[in-house]
Specification:
The structure is a single chain. This protein is an all-alpha fold. It is 55% helix and 1% strand. It has 28 helices and two strands. α9 runs antiparallel to α10, α12 runs antiparallel to α14 and α27 runs antiparallel to α28. It starts with 15 loop residues before the first helix and ends in a 10-residue tail after the last helix.
């Protein structure tokens, strides 16, 4: 994951057709018909988000992955950088909220979607029946209060809704003068019930599964039971659904509950890390700790991209370190998979897989804070003493038998690969004396590749002359593994937005790992500059966590290097403003 340096909104350079596509009525016609119970989570729908203005992007849309890593050189590095547009990373720097940042499509992906747009349309002219859209929901608000109350009484989500109301309405409310009041005004009560009522909860949770889950797949959908998970988790998932909604007013309404939700969650003794409170707390099961970890991670993500500046600082300086400390108390057992798992062994296995995934994404957030805020890492390589997650298609299945079939279909040798922990893979990746080969799956899942390149990114944030060789070797090996994973990790959007029938093919933001490789390569090339130029580049971006300024300077310098290399001059005189 990564975090914006600021909240700058994108300008008016977006094209008119993007605004038309984003209209609510048009998007309603693209949504698939729900299947199964109303509460059941559904897969993601294709994401239609505008890219950053193409006029801001330097370089071509067609990627040039450079020469073979065996022959990497400074000239090759600058050549690769001159071809990379860094669209995704620049969009991250511009900020604008979690929806705009994560549900982002590069110009290449947009072009693909335009060319294949007809394949996304329903095969008939009629809209799907029984689908609750945002428009339908707000129309339904006109119904009488008595009618809504009767509907809620028979809603399976009513117990969770009531628990949320009680938590928020009993929590003291801070007024502008800093004084706490136990009595909330009537308007506050109405807003709380209106936002967290059963029907709205269901709609927001549906948006979570469709438009956010693919970016952070740490919860196993098939075994997820809303009636059994902590109330705090239901609150956070519904807030995420609101922030990725096409209706911008949803985010406005959700933002008022962010700080209260964060405060309630981190008042839990296990997450607060207060010794006295933890001693008084009854022992927690492993599953309870997992749910607290998952919820805390998602709260950190929400506040980082949607909270106020003070909320973001509080997350980085207080909440996230507490989450890291708590996560160290949850071990990964990684039991072996069997061809025919019992129900008990399947539950244990999928619980452990969620632990592995949650720990992996906690590390990715740690890496984001290092890259974009120049923060020292809270998680070291030795902390990554657990296996890589299984590929997403395997994680989505319902039972042990289906899981075994999915593994055989996508990567039969993956169970053997699981014996290598992430920390061991990183050591092999960086070993300058080992053979220039590294055992890896024939198809490296996008998440695994992103984890490894994030380790390289953390290394690049704290470069020294003694670590340059290790980083260069790790980048060369990562690129070779990443290429071996194609088309699994291809830039081709055909694997990302294939059809409405298989929307879960999306790999989320981790598909942009090649941009992170180029950013690490760029920082590496800085070390080869003259001391004066290196000092200017570091001051203009690297040491401040300002990725945007660093990219602009590097793009200008890489273009100069390519131009001079074409004329045979290997030492161009470049400046970094």
């Amino acid at each position: 994951m990564s975090s914006p340096a600021g909240g700058t909104e994108l300008g008016a350079d977006y094209t008119d057709w993007n605004e038309e596509i984003m209209s609510l009525g048009f998007l309603d016609s693209l949504l698939p018909e729900p299947t199964g119970p109303a509460m059941a989570p559904r897969d993601a729908t294709p994401i239609l988000q505008p890219a950053i203005p193409i006029s801001l992007v330097a370089g071509d849309s067609v990627k040039d992955y450079g020469a073979d890593p065996q022959g990497s050189s400074v000239v090759t590095g600058w050549h690769v950088l001159s071809k990379e547009s860094f669209e995704f990373l620049l969009n991250f720097e511009m900020g604008g909220g979690i929806n705009r940042v994560f549900n982002f499509m590069t110009s290449l992906e947009q072009n693909y979607q335009i060319l294949n747009f007809e394949s996304l349309l329903p095969s008939t002219n009629s809209l799907y029946d029984g689908l609750l859209t945002d428009r339908d929901f707000w129309k339904s608000r006109e119904s009488s209060s008595s009618t809504k109350t009767v509907e809620w009484l028979f809603d399976p989500l009513l117990p969770q809704a009531k628990a949320i109301w009680e938590k928020l309405l009993k929590k003291p409310q801070a007024h502008e003068n800093g004084i706490l009041f136990d009595d909330h005004d009537l308007n506050f009560n109405d807003r709380c019930i209106e936002f967290f009522n059963p029907r709205n909860l269901r709609r927001l949770l549906d948006l979570y599964w469709k438009r956010w889950h693919t970016h952070c797949p740490i919860i196993h959908e098939s075994s997820f039971d809303l009636s059994q998970v902590p109330t705090d988790m239901v609150m956070v998932l519904s807030l995420l659904g609101a922030f990725v909604s096409f209706d911008k007013q949803e985010a406005v309404k959700a933002r008022q509950w962010l700080d209260a939700t964060e405060s309630l969650l981190f008042s839990t003794p296990w997450l607060s890390r207060h010794d006295f409170a933890r001693q008084m707390e009854p022992p927690l099961t492993r599953e309870t700790k997992l749910r607290l970890m998952q919820t805390a991670l998602l709260v950190c993500v929400l506040q980082t991209w949607e909270g106020t500046e003070s909320s973001r600082s509080r997350i980085r300086e207080l909440r996230y370190p507490h989450l890291v400390q708590a996560s160290r108390e949850v071990d990964c057992l990684y039991p072996d998979i069997e061809h025919k798992m019992s129900l008990h062994s399947w539950k244990e296995f999928i619980l452990d897989e969620q632990v592995i995934r949650t720990k992996s994404f906690i590390f990715l957030l740690d890496s984001a804070f290092s890259i974009f805020h120049n923060m020292p890492p809270h998680i070291t390589v030795s902390d990554l003493a657990f296996p890589f997650p299984y590929p997403d298609p395997c994680f989505r299945v319902h039972n042990g038998e289906a899981f075994w079939k999915a593994v055989q279909q996508h990567s039969p040798d993956y169970p053997k690969i699981r014996r290598t922990h992430i920390c061991d893979a990183v050591k092999m990746l960086c070993d300058t004396e080992a053979l220039n080969t590294l055992s890896c799956p024939p198809e490296m899942p996008a998440l695994n590749g992103f984890i490894l390149i994030s380790v390289c990114q953390e290394m690049s944030c704290f470069l020294s002359p003694t670590t340059v060789a290790s980083l260069r070797r790790s980048l060369d090996r990562w690129l070779r593994m990443w290429k071996s994973g194609c088309p699994f990790n291809s830039h081709s959007s055909s694997e990302i937005y294939s059809s409405l029938d298989q929307p879960s093919a999306s790999t989320g933001f981790t598909r942009h790992s090649y941009e992170y490789y180029c950013l690490a390569l760029a920082k590496l090339e800085i070390m080869g500059k003259s001391p004066e130029q290196r000092h200017i580049l570091l001051a203009n971006g690297l040491r401040k966590g300002n990725v945007k300024d660093l990219i602009w300077n590097l793009k200008r310098m890489s273009s100069a290097y390519v131009d001079y290399s074409a004329t045979g001059d290997s030492h161009p005189q470049t400046t970094a403003d």
